[in-house]
């Protein structure tokens, strides 16, 4: 069934049961809009299941329609429902000199709304930690500031240092080096932690010293047999591949899945995993670098009902072993950046993000 909603051109006060964006009224209740509430002409918008939609005002009232009645609203829709296609659509409209992409997506929806455009797209990057940006990490201390402003993180342990390298363009790139007894604690907030109610994509620009050590990239609640009644996951390098383990609550069984392509030690990689929503107990996506050559895996270890949403933070670079005290499979290596998105990135989005970051970092 198509997902559509009613729109009207309204230069007056906000109509009951609607949201007003500039001169566009958007139906927000199940009332009968064919009865012309507010005394304005209502139109049903495009099917939003097929792509992201932008509604734009046409003050001249000369927008052609299929029913041969000119309208005051024009619709645009992406050819695919991906963030990259939405950026391309907005940029093609030449609304501003700014080029929108993954790095400034948080500015996009406010820009559209403030200029009278409605869209069903929403910002995707909700937490961002960048050791190459002094606004996120000044080079000393244990505080790592979220560039989105809501979910600051903390470096734990004493074995870390601030390092830099020169890329092929001659630019200095700053990194956090952690040497085994150290990790990063991400806060237990809705923006950061996955659940059955929301999907997250986690992206890491990382260089492991030795993937044969099977170092942890990200974990939550995964303490092997220590907490029998808890579930959890770990995302790590394992036998020179990306790997995820999922522990079912009230069971010692661990479901695992890994990518098919090998990873070389001491090289920077963009490692990506999707968790939460249907992926918590259903589909799973993992990527190394861009989409080319990757195993895009779907895996169903347990049903959603088996996953207990843990009231615990996420750990970057380690998890706990069976004693509950010692760091298990710690990461030794460099981290440039951690990005958390509030949705499942498509393969096209992952590919575009990789190439955008690649030209910056390498």
Q: How would you describe this structure to a colleague?
A:
- This protein is mainly beta.
- It has two domains: 6-119, no CATH class; 125-361, Jelly Rolls (Sandwich), CATH 2.60.120.200.
- The chain contains four helices and 24 strands.
- The protein has an eight-stranded antiparallel β-sheet, with no helix packed on it. Strands 8, 11, 12, 14, 19, 20 and 24 form a seven-stranded antiparallel β-sheet that branches. Strands 2-3-1-4 form a four-stranded antiparallel β-sheet, with no helix packed on it.
- A hairpin with a 2-residue loop joins strand 16 and strand 17 (241-247).
- It is elongated, with a radius of gyration of 23 Å.
Summarize this structure briefly.
The protein has helices at 83-92, 108-114, 278-281, 347-361; strands at residues 6-9, 18-21, 24-27, 42-44, 53-57, 73-77, 118-119, 125-130, 143-144, 153-156, 160-166, 172-179, 183-186, 199-208, 216-220, 232-238, 241-247, 254-258, 269-276, 285-288, 314-316, 319-320, 327-328, 332-341. The chain is mainly beta. The strands form 5 sheets. The protein has an 8-stranded antiparallel sheet, with no helix packed on it.
